[in-house]
Amino acid sequence: MRPSKRGHDELRTVTLERAVSRHAEGSCLVSFGDTKVLCTASLEERGPGWLRGSGKGWVTAEYSMLPRATHERTRREVTSGKPSGRTQEIQRLIGRSLRAVTNLPAIGERQITVDCDVIQADGGTRTAAITGAWVALHDCFTWMRGRSIISVDPLRDHVAAVSCGIYKGKPVLDLDYAEDSGAETDANFVITGSGGLVEVQGTAEGKPFSEDELLELLRLAKGGIHALVALQKQAVGQ
């Protein structure tokens, strides 16, 4: 039995609340159970310097965790002068995931930054961030089209992410903190709405996992992504 009493293939309760930030061009408050992440998409009229003259835009992301998102206060990374290795890894992952489904030339030479701030953490913050970031980016593009800044929708597909793991010998979907901290294997899957794999991260914490177990985790992840994409479509009215 899982600590949350969920079935092995059952997501936590997921919500996607749009337009939660008055000033951002696109925003979404995403909840995976008790994990809550605020995602805001901001349009900048200039792209990065290294893309100047290319006619292509850029989508990037920044990630942070508020000091009391966890059981004990964590120090703000700004006080140390640079983001931690974990933070850099996650924000690069979010950016790669969004760019995988974005037609960058359709943006023009502009940049959109999606900020993902963890308000409360209970496992799966990076997967929640990616899922909510897509909604914020979608709404930013809708805002741009409504003002004739762009003429077509740059999004080519949905993208969402979910964690899976082997907990007490059983493959399970969408690990919360209690499971993540005790799992023998944990993995994160970033998958598009059409089923394309963007990124797979898997780690054995003790005993190595088998190829069959990896395929079972992938099967669980695909089912979870199908449900998450359905929630994204419902949230944006598709």
Automatic annotation (TrEMBL):
EC id: 2.7.7.56
Q: Which domain of life is it from?
A: Bacteria
Pfam family membership, one: RNase_PH_C
Q: Which reactions are catalysed by this chain?
A: tRNA(n+1) + phosphate = tRNA(n) + a ribonucleoside 5'-diphosphate
Give the Gene Ontology MF terms in alphabetical order: tRNA nucleotidyltransferase activity
Q: Tell me the residue numbers annotated for binding phosphate.
A: R86, G124, T125, R126
Alphabetized UniProt keyword annotations: Nucleotidyltransferase, RNA-binding, rRNA processing, Transferase, tRNA processing, tRNA-binding
Does the keyword field hold RNA-binding? yes
Coiled-coil stretches are none
What InterPro entries does the entry give? ExoRNase_PH_dom1, ExoRNase_PH_dom2, ExoRNase_PH_dom2_sf, PNPase/RNase_PH_dom_sf, Ribosomal_Su5_D2-typ_SF, RNase_PH, RNase_PH_bac-type, RNase_PH_CS
Q: What class of enzyme is it?
A: transferase
Exoribonuclease phosphorolytic domain location: 10-140, 159-223
> Which family is this protein grouped under?
Belongs to the RNase PH family.
Assembly with partners or alone = Homohexameric ring arranged as a trimer of dimers.
Q: Which NCBIfam families match?
A: RNasePH
Q: What does this protein do?
A: Phosphorolytic 3'-5' exoribonuclease that plays an important role in tRNA 3'-end maturation. Removes nucleotide residues following the 3'-CCA terminus of tRNAs; can also add nucleotides to the ends of RNA molecules by using nucleoside diphosphates as substrates, but this may not be physiologically important. Probably plays a role in initiation of 16S rRNA degradation (leading to ribosome degradation) during starvation.
Protein name (record): Ribonuclease PH
Give the source species. Answer: Methylobacterium goesingense
The gene behind this protein is rph
